[in-house]
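Chain A, query sequence.
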Amino acid sequence: MSRRVWSIWIAALAPTAVGAQQGPADIVLRNGKVYTASDKQPHAQAVAIKGDKILFVGSDKDAGKLSGPATRVIDLKGATVLPGFTDSHMHLSGVGEREMTLNLEGLTSLDSFLVKVKGRVDQARPGQWVTGRGWIETFWKPPVFPTRQDLDRIAPNNPVLLQRVDGHASIANSAALRLAGITRDTKAPAGGAINKDADGEPTGMLIDHAQGLVERLVPLPSEAELDEQILKGVQREMQLGWTEIQDAHGTWNEVDRLRRLYRDGKIKIRIYKTISGPSADADRLIAQGASLGEFGDRLTVRTIKVVMDGALGSRGAALLQPYSDAPNNVGLITTDTVALKPMLVGALRNGIQVETHSIGDRGNRLTLDFYERAMKDVPADQRKVKEPRWRDEHAQIVNPDDIPRFKSLGVIASMQPSHAISDLYFAPARLGMERLKGAYAWQSFVELDVPVAGGSDAPVERGEPLIEFYAAVARKDLQGRSAEGWHPGQKVTREQALKMFTVWAAYSAFEEAKRGTIEPGKLADLTVFDKDIMKVPELEILRAKNLITIINGEIVYAVVP
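Chain A, predicted structure.
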């Protein structure tokens, strides 16, 4: 049967008071499998919504009593209703940019990579920059980084800069290196590396902060293009079933752009926006304080994002011992640690949350060390928010001795399950088997009662909630395969996975009183899938489809017969 897709956009965003929530309902979802994520009432058949709040959760019969002449009643025909899914770590403009530029995801060989790039080069004007993102060499044979010479064969004249999927490395061709003035004698900036060949010549691979040497030359997008990036990203997220996105990285200029788009009624999804630091923008957030629940609880700015180290795939993650496949490399510290210390103290005093990208075991240890020192310097009675809920973003490779520190310090582990099923193909080579004991250790955190906020890190990963849910419960690749060192004991149950993207995600944003479960009085954020992902075989999870996304009681995306 053919399907029609529509999105409902309404400019008015004013919330409805809880006290005004009496029948009849505006929307009734009936004949469904409702998983509330609440221990009080785990299962139901129906949900009723009035205004922006959940009015009722229970049986079809009782929900029917709340229907009035104007009530929209939707027969779910057995579909599964879940609390609105939250992506606890993603990059909104990056998702939109990926949709607008050269998307290099899913290419399985160097040849296919070059064919895709050549197609864009052939369309470019002489001298026009060619940019894109998403390549990963893991599955190429051999699995090695491309070189400037590879790109020169297909793009001798156009400057080319193509970012690896993790965003922590880029490959540039010779034309781009010439424009940037990069030679064998160029020194890499702090927190970056310029890879060299055996003769000491640049290979074209630029790691972490070294990418900026070329990126600064790429023409900036127009204001209209920046708007389009945001709107394309938002639309994609709602279609997939995300109801809130926690957008890692940011500036006040980006916040101003979001506010304008919200005022114009162009954004409906909830955005928990961070400001990158240490920086003048981060200092401003500390000085003026958090901005909570703008536009009907849709936009919050209360968090500073720090990047402690690089990524594992590009060997920029900071390790306690050298890389197993690069004995002279221990990775990179990419933040200004001198500026970090006073920033953390100021944030703690003024009620500002901090989240820190930490991939390697040294990067994670340093993050915990800095957090612990700041918490000792600013005891609870001197804090605007006594429970700061600071976060470790990725918590990817953690020395087992450091895992209990998350609990003792009250640090949230913000993790992206898909990283495990993509990285574990190359992680054994990078780390060796021993260090994998603390890698992607979701269950170890859960067993210590450390909240694990689930995210996708899109566009580093594909950014689909069902892939993330599957990866968390299966810990296998998308074909159902596992391998040595994947530690299946670290996978989580489906109930735990659901909490990663609902309850614990809400907690990580100080929102657990308002959302994260399906309960009367909470904000009406719901995700409806066509399959019961809590029960179907693991691989069937990946075949499920999002049918309805509800945010603030509004159906913002739906697929209907």
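Residues 1-84+516-561 form a domain with the Urease, subunit C; domain 1 fold (CATH 2.30.40.10). The first helix runs from residue 60 to 64.
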